[in-house]
Amino acid sequence: MIILYTILILVLIGAVMGLLLAVANKFLLVEEDKRKEEVLKMMPGANCGSCGYPGCSGLVDAIIEGKVTKVTTCSVIKKENAGKIKEYLDATPGADGTFLKVDI
Asked: Can you give the pLDDT at residue 40?
């Protein structure tokens, strides 16, 4: 009988914790800027760090946040890809509706 109560209590605790996680996920969700994924696809993917950031993802984060305004901070990127990134960011608004103006 004690084992049955123990199992019942553990199932109840698991259900409550699952419910709390679902509620936390709903209210504490941080949305990522969708432009990041597209710009990252256009980057060379060398992850060399010569730009001063930890890989291409770090540089893309800095560009999206407005900390870096020149796409050619990446020394490996081709000019045509830098132009595509500039065009994409100039034309695509962020989640808050603002546009980024970057240079090649």
From this structure: 92
Give the integer Cα–Cα distance in Å for 36 and 84: 14
Burial 49-68 (b: 16+ CB within 10 A, else e): eebebebbeebbbbbbeeeb
Specify the fold of 34-91.
3-methyladenine DNA Glycosylase II; Chain A, domain 3 (1.10.15)
Q: Cα–Cα distance between 57 and 21 in angstroms, integer? A: 29
* DSSP-based three-state secondary structure for 30: coil
Q: How far is Cα 14 from Cα 32, in angstroms, rounded to an integer?
A: 30
Q: Is the pTM of this model over 0.85?
A: no
